[in-house]
Write a structure and sequence with these properties.
This protein is an all-alpha fold and about 325 residues long.
């Protein structure tokens, strides 16, 4: 009778459900990321813009009355930038006059969109740029994927698990702060019916988070899977965002609209085909539409389809690369 049998033996112990396999990969990755002091500091730093928006919510709610609304209307009428924001959203000043509920819904939507558009978007680019490039490329270089895939784990579950790391981080960066601010606004509101007037805003927050998380995670995983050197993937990640935005800004400045009427100008400010050159502008456009800050007839189907195509291509590349390596 052999004392040591080094042949293959079937696993006879308990198995975890198949749907939890990707979660194990994701939770392991999140644990490793969270051990980084720099990542924790960046996430803490990103809470400050959320605090400022929460303070703005509190100031708005504590001063939202018929007289203060009239003062706000007067300010809008005198301020060119404020009028432009209302025009782009298709909101008439007369619709807001003596209507605190309409003012609340518009102001909350605009503040939350601003949070998504600037601090959270830049935070997303930074966090994903630090974490995403290493997710697959480091496993390829160290052959760590062999340890993962020696278990009953398919390439698709491996890719989904790695994406789950980015989902978790971006959920902490974007979704949680926005939902928390909304809840704070309800508690600070002087109107007990505020939740009735703003019930759709949490749904808009979730939709804006999805359109932020899915395409960006797909791009990051695709870049990470295409090289064994994470620094190359990181360089490509930041180059896509920076060069895309610079290209958009230069071409946008070069084609300033020629006065063609107020309505045409509003549509041009909202929609410009050049945004497809810049992921930042494309995501910002869709999020602005989600929060209802555009006139109703601005197109949304094509930008969403482009975001979906980018997402599908990104995950397909990551899956193809992992599957191809397993066949070598």
């Amino acid at each position: 009778m052999p004392i040591l049998d080094i042949g293959y033996r079937k696993w006879e112990g308990p198995r975890s459900p198949a749907w939890t396999r990707a979660w194990v990969v994701a939770s392991t990755g999140v644990g490793l990321v969270w051990s980084s002091t720099w990542i924790r500091r960046i996430l803490m730093l990103l809470t400050f813009p959320s605090l400022l928006v929460a303070i703005a919510f509190g100031v708005l709610e504590q001063n939202l009355s018929e007289s203060s609304t009239e003062q706000a209307i007067t300010f809008v009428q005198r301020n060119r930038e404020a009028r432009r924001v209302l025009d782009n959203a298709g909101v008439e000043v007369k619709d807001l006059r003596n209507n605190p509920a309409a003012v609340r819904h518009f102001a909350w939507s605009y503040l939350l969109f601003t949070l998504f558009r600037y601090p959270q978007a830049f935070g997303m680019i930074l966090v994903v740029g630090l974490v995403g490039p290493r997710l697959i490329s480091y496993d390829l270089r160290s052959r760590g994927y062999l340890l993962y895939l020696s278990r009953p784990l398919t390439p698709a579950e491996y890719v989904i698990g790695k994406a789950g790391v980015l989902y978790t981080l971006l959920f902490l960066v974007a979704t949680i702060p926005a939902l928390t601010i909304y809840v704070v606004g309800l508690f600070l509101s002087t109107d007990p019916w505020a939740i009735v007037y703003t019930w759709d805003i949490p749904l808009r927050i979730i939709a804006a988070s999805v359109i932020l998380i899915l395409p960006t995670s797909a791009i990051a995983l695709a870049l990470s899977s295409m090289t064994q050197e994470s620094r190359y993937a990181g360089f490509a990640w930041f180059a896509i965002w920076i060069l895309g935005h610079v290209t958009y800004s230069v071409l946008w400045s070069a084609q300033q609209f020629r006065g063609q009427g107020r309505r045409t100008q509003i549509l041009a400010e909202n929609y410009n085909a050049l945004m497809y050159l810049s992921p930042y502008e494309l995501l910002g456009y869709i999020q602005k539409k989600i929060f209802g800050l555009m006139v109703a007839d601005t197109p949304i189907l094509t930008p969403v389809l482009v975001a979906v195509v980018i997402t599908v291509i990104g995950y397909t590349i990551a899956y193809w690369r992992v599957s191809r390596i397993l066949k070598l």
